[in-house]
Amino acid sequence: MLEQIKAFPDNFLWGGATAANQLEGAYLEGGKGLTTVDLIPIGANRFPIALGNLDSYEPKEGEFYPSHEAIDFYHRYKEDIALFAEMGLKCLRLSVAWARIFPNGDDAEPNEAGLQFYDDVFDELLKYNIQPVVTICHFDVPVSLVQNYGGWKNRKMITFFETYAKTLFNRYKHKVKYWMTFNEINMLLHLPYIGAGVVLQEGEDKEQVLYQAAHHELVASALAVKACHEIIPGAQIGCMLAAGMVYPYSSHPEDVWKAMDKDRESFFFIDVQSKGEYPGYTKRFFRENNICIEMQPEDADILKQHTVDYIGFSYYASRCTSADPEVLKNSTEGNVFGSVKNPYLEASEWGWTIDPKGLRITCNQLHDRYGKPLFIVENGLGATDVLLDNDTVEDDYRIAYLNSHFAEMAEAIQDGVELIGYTSWGPIDLVSAGTGEMKKRYGYIYVDRNNDGSGTLRRVRKKSFHWYKEVIASNGAQYFG
């Protein structure tokens, strides 16, 4: 008789997820150089720059850049990590700012002040037995690499990234066991400047440029996997996908095919990183769209021999699509991907569908496709929180959202999906990557900061803080009845 699964794994990594450019601040302190995200303002110019349609190489007068101070984790990390420890986090996903280590990206030597900062952060985490889960590149290419080389359009970026990754592995090999190469690598196709430091020039073939940049990132990722395995035996290094299954709007075969095609647009990246070769459907797409990827003879072997250990992914919402132009008119741009409005699902105030069952579906979909351990490294609800007079936030809506997703996560484990852990976005309020707002809050910890940069930056525990603490303490026992 088969034994019933009755609990999350004993070593399950409950945690939270962050990104350097969304919480650190101190954007030029300690020898740090400018990164792409440092030049994306809040307001009307945000998306033209993020899309790569408007160049940005230095801060412009009259613009407000949320990343410049963010929530000042750079100076307050001890206070914040103490709060994370109080909550009981087993891990913290965070990223290293490339330009803190190599201010220009192609420097001959790394910046010691930047290396020491992350040493101090990792030491503080380990003091509380919180495992660092480190993303090597989370939407922050050094601006100098964009100006001088064109960002990931240029093959030279592979060497710069490999040098950067090896520097991290050698420095932190005794402190970090879990790594990821690129955050939401498929976002390159949707926000080229954020995803790859790519500015599209007039007359360029957009798809040719973006898929060439993707190839460079994929080779760089494989070389980082190789280096990690060589320098830190026993470490785990994964990829990271912005996930969320695309549903067909109807059972019409054309809708089903369109949904599969949309899923494959993202799966392409992870197929290469996990299976080690370009899939047939991508090769057909390239043929039919006259896309010719420049590759070196050694690239195929590099991709094949150095695949990832696990699949990291973010899940906020499912999507929906149709082959019918009339149905497509009812699309929402609630997130970067866009989606036909799903009549069966409610949405957040920012238009993101709320679909807990979609998390279970996505887990099974990825597990069936890759047969590797999964790590849910982003999931959460962005909402307008109100700080009450009694110094708390009654965010029952966030608790309800997470509670329903945790229940489906438990179902996925019973389905046979191997899950390493779960890190919600984010454990503390930080700057929204999409809109640049502070008003769009995700955290268990409220930060007194507004969209215009005003506020004291004081930290306050929300109701969800205490709830998540209980979930972690019980290892999610309530979800297995």
UniProtKB/TrEMBL annotation:
InterPro entries: GH, GH_1_N_CS, Glyco_hydro_1, Glyco_hydro_1_AS. GO terms for biological process: carbohydrate catabolic process. Keywords: Glycosidase, Hydrolase. The keyword Hydrolase applies. One of its GO terms (molecular function) is beta-glucosidase activity. The keyword Hydrolase applies. GO terms for cellular component: cytosol. The active site is at E378 (nucleophile). PANTHER family: 6-PHOSPHO-BETA-GLUCOSIDASE ASCB-RELATED, GLYCOSYL HYDROLASE. Belongs to the glycosyl hydrolase 1 family. This is Amygdalase. It comes from Paenibacillus barcinonensis. The gene is ascB.
